[in-house]
Amino acid sequence: LAPHSSQVEDVYSLVHQTMTQPHVKDYVPFSWTTMVHVKSEHFKALSHYFAAIALCDCPVASESELPEQEKAFLQFHVTMPEGPSLRVLLQDPEERRKLGKAHLKKAIMKHEEAMRIHGLCKILRKMDILQEVLSFAHKRSLSKYSEIDHEEDFFETGDAPDIHPKTHQKPEIKPPNFSQVKVTDLFHRLGPLSVFSAKNKWYPARRVHLMRGENGFGFTLRGDSPVLIAGVIPGGCAAAAGLKEGDYIVSVNGQDCRWAKHAEVVQLLKSSGADGVDVAVITLHGSEAPRAVDKKAAGMSSGMLKSNKENSRKSLMNSKSPSTLLVWSKKSKRSKKSTYSGVPFTAVGDNEAMY
């Protein structure tokens, strides 16, 4: 376990050195770099802890086992520890305890360094599991140190050499399976990407206060997520409040409506009392141009109505408005009770409703 831990520490140290290079550190979050540094110190502490356990808890080798242990011990440390010869070290329990105590001292120092670095990062301090792992490993090394420490120890604990990194395991790069991880879309709060994306530019949201008139608010709605104001009746309540054709409703009475369905927005509007309703809308850049085309088309159509009243009904049913915001259908039906007289014909389509 000690060489394995040292190998992991060696890899994390290399990653940390790469992260702190001048051309890399500006693109890596501080919390990531700190996490790698914490893990580097943590696994170095574990390598010394497991080395101390091997020296203090394993039984003394017999004469037949001694050659094999000598060979393994020569490959265990980066440099040979100071003190007695290798054979004396392996056969004398007291010498093994002294070296084990030196390893534990170094392990405790590295544990404390990992906890200190962890405490410097505000984001890492919120990770309770990481804090528990570091604290548990630190307490375990302290407990083992207290167990092997004797009151009559008057010798000065030496500096234990590092453990030689070695492992039979080969690192394998595996891409994460994002389908198994539940995450929140970073752009969800912006709204549907069909409108709230980098390819579109919009003015800041503006708030208008609407009071219901005799014929309602005086506009037509269309679509879902977000709901579009497809038409505004001239002289109506909506027009007086400043609503424009092509505006998107983003909130009603402070409730976010960017992801709301058509029926949900209608219900919020209908539930408004005598004090009216506060509506927040946004206008896309360039959405004024299509409305100008619509007005021109409406003027041409009105001329056609004056010149030929009989053909106006057929042309009204068969024509398609060039507006990008409105859609017409030949099967459009009108309610006899609806007050559409005086409303431009481009204002209401079969998939729209007046409120």
TrEMBL record:
SMART domains hit by this protein: BRO1 (SM01041), PDZ (SM00228)
Domain spans labelled BRO1: 1-151
Residue spans of biased composition, Polar residues class: 314-326
InterPro entries linked to this entry: BRO1_dom (IPR004328), BRO1_sf (IPR038499), PDZ (IPR001478), PDZ_sf (IPR036034), RHPN1_2 (IPR047138)
Domain of life, per lineage: Eukaryota
Start and end residues of each stretch annotated as Disordered: 295-342
SUPFAM superfamilies: PDZ domain-like
A biological process from GO: negative regulation of stress fiber assembly
PDZ domain: residues covered: 207-273
One Pfam family in the UniProt entry: PDZ
PANTHER family for the chain: RHOPHILIN (PTHR23031), RHOPHILIN-1 (PTHR23031:SF6)
Entry protein name: RHPN1 protein
Organism placement in taxonomy: Eukaryota, Metazoa, Chordata, Craniata, Vertebrata
Primary gene name: Rhpn1
